[in-house]
């Protein structure tokens, strides 16, 4: 039974991360480029509508990451100081991504594209740190 819970939590963590970071990368590289050909009023309306539709996915992904992340931390105790240091750095990046995810899902955000780019880079850094943490564990 413990193996099933572990697999479900790992899947939830990876799927939530892919949804959140993938949505930001798609939004920055595809949606903003697609909206460039529209008139300024249509562009803003298009991007606001996309942000509104993306909002439930953002909050679901954030909830999935918090739940599965807490499970992972509390079931894998006894790490080295290096592991905890890198985990702390990773969690700082996570807070950045979460804050940006909430802000980009709000309407009338003129800095949405720039914010998505920064959060996407933070998300890719999170993935790199996670891969290294997995390696040293």
What does this structure look like?
The chain is mainly α and 137 residues long. The protein has helices at 2-35, 40-75, 81-104, 112-136. Helix 1 runs antiparallel to helix 4. The longest helix is centred in the middle third of the chain and has 36 residues, at 40-75.
Oligomer: single chain
Structure annotation, total helices: 4
Mean pLDDT figure: 94
Rg over CA atoms, rounded to whole Å, is 17 Å
What is the total tally of β strands? 0
Task: Give me the secondary-structure category.
Answer: mainly alpha
Helix content: over 70%
Strand content: under 5%
Instruction: Give the distance, in angstroms, between the N- and C-terminal Cα atoms.
Output: 23 Å
What composes the largest sheet?
none
C-alpha geometry = elongated
Low-confidence stretches: none
Helix-strand string? HHHH
Summary tags:
mainly alpha; 4 helices; 137 residues
Q: Mind sketching the topology for me?
A:
Blueprint: H1 2-35, H2 40-75, H3 81-104, H4 112-136
Helix pairs in contact: 1-2, 1-4, 2-3, 3-4
Q: What's the short story on this structure?
A:
This protein is mainly alpha-helical.
């Amino acid at each position: 039974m413990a193996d099933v819970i572990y697999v479900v939590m790992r899947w939830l963590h990876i799927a939530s991360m892919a949804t959140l970071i993938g949505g930001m990368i798609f939004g920055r590289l595809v949606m903003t480029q697609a909206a460039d050909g529209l008139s300024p009023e249509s562009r803003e309306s298009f991007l606001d509508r996309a942000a509104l539709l993306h909002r439930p996915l953002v909050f679901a992904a954030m909830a999935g990451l918090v739940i599965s992340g807490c499970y992972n931390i509390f079931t894998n105790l006894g790490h080295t100081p290096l592991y905890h240091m890198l985990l702390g750095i990773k969690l700082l990046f996570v807070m950045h991504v979460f804050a940006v995810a909430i802000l980009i899902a709000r309407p009338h955000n003129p800095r949405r594209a720039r914010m998505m780019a920064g959060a996407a880079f933070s998300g890719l850094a999170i993935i790199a740190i996670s891969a290294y943490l997995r390696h040293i564990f």
